[in-house]
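Write out structure tokens for Tyr recombinase domain-containing protein.
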Amino acid sequence: MAPARKARNRNSKKISSIDEPPTFSAIQELHDTSKKRHGKAPNTTKKYSEYVVRGRNWLQDTFDLENVNSDASLWSKNGESTSSPGDREAFRHAFDDAPNEYSPRALALFLSFKIFHENLSESTAEGIYSAFKALWKHSADEKYRGTWHFNDRTNEWQGNPADSACVQDIREAIKHKCGAEGGDRKHSLAMSKGFMEKVYTWSIKQFPVDTSPLPDIKKEAEHVKHLMYRAFSALGFCLWTRNVELITAKRKQVTFNLEDAEFYDMPYIDFRLTDRKGWQRKVDRAKKEDDLKANEYVLYNWEGVPSCDGKQQLEEWVAYLEKHVYRHPLEPDDYLFPAISANGIVQRGEHVTHDTIQKWITEFTVGAKIITSSTAGTFTTHCFRRGGAQYRFLFAPGKERWPLHIVRWWGGWADGEHRDTLIKYLLDELHTYETNYKHAMRPVRPELDQTFMGEGQMAAAPTTEELRVATRKIIEETKKSAEDNKKLTESFEELKTFIAVQLRASLPANPQSAQPSAPQTAPHVLPPSRALTMPPVPSHGTEPQLTSHHQPASQRLVRTTCTYSIAPITLCPQISHDPSSGSSNIQQADSECSSESDMPAQADDGTRRTTRLYIPDIPLRLDDGRKSPRRDSWREIVEHWLHPDPHRGLFVALKDWPRQWLKDSSAMIAEKHHHRRIIAEEFIIQYNSNEAKFLADYPQASQNHTVLRKAIDLKREERGELIRLM
């Protein structure tokens, strides 16, 4: 007998990988998990859970504060007073997953507390209501759905407590209260393109685009914050996102370095926005496949508008994050906008919070002088979304303006979106703009309500009043430019003085001995008005030298014995060439050169200008950004006393400063020069530049120069020396 033929399972390929069929309990668990995961959007589910937790905490805290002998009507049944312990215990569990007869009253009291006592918004009330309604709706299958009522047959309460008359009455009262007191809608102020550019300009002044990582931790944290804000704001303006939708964006959602083969290989990035509010409803309504992929956005460069260029700002931010912060490429699940701790450390596994972004928006708009600290908070979570949408629908020039169907798609609004939503974002702004008469007192009042967005004014001929105002403005700007040019000229004269000081310090003792070769050119005479007069440099027994700022201070302490003094030099020479000698001779101009030798210099108009003197701070800032060790501070002071340091703005050694310079300088400069002199002369004169002996007597030198100076003052007092300011 032939063996029985095995029946062929049509779906054998699909279950071949499953060892054994799941049990009913496993399927039930999968059912419950899937319903909870996919029933609502993740952000909505999370928000609902937070509302429920707050409600339960409020109920327990309030219940514990109540006295047993308090008003018994709180625990009443249908208005009949009772103080049964069982009733009070049932009220304690009114917010459990399985509701009881006190759940409607507890929810109504919680809503009253939040709205009428804490004065929160209507949206908060709706969130609380929706959270508890969803909680009880999914409890015990279909038992707690529908109108809340008492079933006489089963002797139990059924339906959803959120749909009870008690809760609906308080919802209606809340709507009336918010409508009466709120008046106008409290929309987020739109972050317009003009505001974006103003904030960007302010941010660039703080930290330019090409700023390298800063050695100071606090300054670098501030630098990182500016880079992140520029990318976040530009991306939000381009994608029209709510702030809460963008803070969770990850690296895997964006693809860089793409090229559009159909449009001249123009570079672009592809951004997939996954947490857009309301997209779960698209799935519920069984949209076609094209709509389900509507979360993909292609971003090109916005030429000439870096403040709103989401592609450019995001690329710059990610490049900096990978190169200087993480020092390796981002992983797919790394957040694009990570959290930054209070000490400036980037928290890789956490995203920036909504509160942090809101704080930054306020800080940047106040810094850019868009708003003041007293009006802070007008830019909220929808500011970039509203600003981007309004620009493309209302304010963009020509063909850059988008029609309503593109606006609806780009903003993620459903086809059946309530008209009030788009009115709130678009038409309200248009109506407000065209009926805004805040400039009524302007000499030429704008007529914004005569044409769409006042565009007719752009093509209208200027009036006489407009021409008069424009002319006056041009005259004012011309005068301002003249004043700026005058200040620039004065600054240039001071710069020439500093250059002359530097040249004076580097000239040999006998200027006539220097016979530099010169090209075969005609004699050249500097104009008298450009003559620069240098003061005489007093002799202190050492020769001023220009030394390299890269050489350590400890290696540059050289004692010299040259005691020459150079006479005043007037830098207005006439350079003549003698072909027979093959050299150039430097001759002073006769009567037209100034002979003044003391600082400050005499200006052409007879006023006296004081040259800005500068003494470098100690410890010195090195070329790599770090500060020099404090143990070398005294060596750096001695070095600056003996030699100039042009690299750091010290063009004349401190020992060569004339007394007049200090007399005409600020008290801070004079005091700093005096402190430097105490340390330098103690080492050079008292200890004959013997470093070993100096350090043996002054171990404080290894701490810092301030402690060392105080120790030297004590020694000088013991020696009976008189310390005088120059």
